[in-house]
Design a protein that fits this description.
2 copies of one chain form a homodimer. By secondary structure, chain A is an alpha+beta fold. Helices cover about 45% and strands about 15% of the residues of chain A. Chain A has helices at about 5-15, 30-40, 60-65, 75, 90-105, 115-125, 130-155, 165-175, 205-210, and strands at about 50-55, 80-85, 155-160, 180-190, 210-214. In chain A, helix 1 crosses helix 7, helix 2 (about 30-40) packs antiparallel against helix 7 (about 130-155) and helix 5 (about 90-105) runs antiparallel to helix 6.
């Protein structure tokens, strides 16, 4: 069952960067399960999925992350917190493990995927290490977009968190040396009835400033 | 009206990077209108919307873009084509025009927004020009994610296009000197009944490889 265009727009207008969550309300387990599956299903270039998503449940870790996030209360009050991390590299081993997984799922012999593998390798080898990480990080932002849009259509509130110290997040989550680095975070849950931002008119530039027909 | 978790997942599983579109099927005008509104509503850091979205209708321009996209047939066969561009800079004038717009929509005096304005300025001034463009480009990927997820829940097919020559796109669209540069493109429409990719099993890493609970 799909959604109607007007219902999609109503959901996207319902969405806003929630500053005050209701700490008493938790996302039901089966709904949260859909969020995790939605993260896993996020599309990425070549299907490489250059990411890992940390669902932070431990209250002590959330306190530490809060301190690395300008003490924003969402870190504690939101029902759920996801830290979206990007692969810091794109190695031949990364490509090989993706090709092996594709082969396994689609029942295609590895040899038949040699063309795809070669294409990814030549694409990858044209990038510097910094470009690879930047490219992986952009892919992670697709996941952030899908996550927030998924939340909106499910009627769940979210707040993207860019005002964080990624280096401190990495340390807190034990990421140095793992090949992953914090890109961005997102808090999810239910808005507090007192969040004044919930009733602020949605502000965007005019359609004509943002959309151009050619 | 929101969507149920299982329906969201069905929509995300329906989605795949459509390689062959049915050239005879067009997205109805009112549905397309919802896509444009969805693009406009995309969240961005500080609300800055550092982007412009080009909806390319002109068949000659689409032919030229196809030549700058490894001749991928989606450029022509898809019902609609969006080129997502990012601001190449983040100037005080950008910040001022956003603050002015916010003031106008929310009925808040500009002076009352001085704190926000100063926060964005100090954030921005800490970045090099290259970092600003990279940051803007990441924001554009949120729009790409929202666009593809919106398509999925509307039952519309899409194909993200990263295998393009951004510099050639810029030239074709007349972007040099405008302060915007091509980040990525996305074709939207309806899959061809002959697209063999439509029936390929969806391939992702195992949940446990991608999601970590801490």
């Amino acid at each position: 069952m799909t959604i109607q265009p007007n219902d999609l727009l109503a959901a996207l207008r319902f969405r806003y960067a929630t500053k005050a969550f209701d700490p008493a309300r938790k996302i039901p387990a089966e709904t949260w399960d859909a969020f995790e599956k939605s993260l896993v299903l996020t599309p990425s270039s070549f299907g490489l999925q250059p990411w890992k998503f940390f669902v932070v449940e431990n209250p002590e870790i959330r306190e530490k992350l809060k301190a690395a996030s300008w003490n924003q209360p969402q870190l504690i009050d939101a029902s759920h917190l996801v830290v979206l991390t990007a692969r810091t590299d794109l190695t031949q081993a990364d490509i090989d493990s993706w090709i092996a997984r594709l082969s396994e799922i689609q029942g295609t012999p590895i040899e038949a995927l040699a063309g795809l593998s070669g294409m990814i390798s030549s694409f990858s080898s044209a990038m510097t290490p910094a470009e690879k990480q930047a490219w992986n990080t952009r892919q992670v932002y697709i996941a952030l977009g899908q996550l927030m849009t998924s939340a909106a259509v499910l009627g769940i509130d979210s707040c993207p968190l860019e005002g964080i110290s990624p280096a401190d997040y990495d340390t807190i989550l034990g990421l140095p040396g793992t090949g992953y680095a914090t890109a961005v975070a997102c808090a999810l849950g239910y808005r507090s009835p007192e969040d004044k931002y919930a009733v602020a008119p949605k502000a965007r530039f005019l359609d004509a400033q943002v959309i151009e027909h050619v």
